């Protein structure tokens, strides 16, 4: 592993992610680029994403931890705060970012977002409208997408 030019902080965070994984989350650095993480988040129980395995990518720029990691979903997901490119609308990835936060905090927050979609701060207008006008149907669609795209197949 070539981490000679990696800041200590990233090395420590990576070691902690690997040695004490958060429940339902796995994140491992790419062997080619230690700033690039392959992430898997299990759909939280009691959510329409339950049973799903969602792949994400997380990238730490040169400015990390002064700026937030870049994270996006690679698995298609029906969620008002995640757009079709997998971008995530989450305050701590934008204006609420603080260098005190860690990769682990970010992933736990994304996992929490799966349990509590927020159609009032949407990234996907259509999905948010669906969520607000017919939540039961939107939840069914989310479950269907989870079966179709996140079944770990």
From TrEMBL:
It comes from the Eukaryota. This is Uncharacterized protein. It comes from Trifolium pratense.
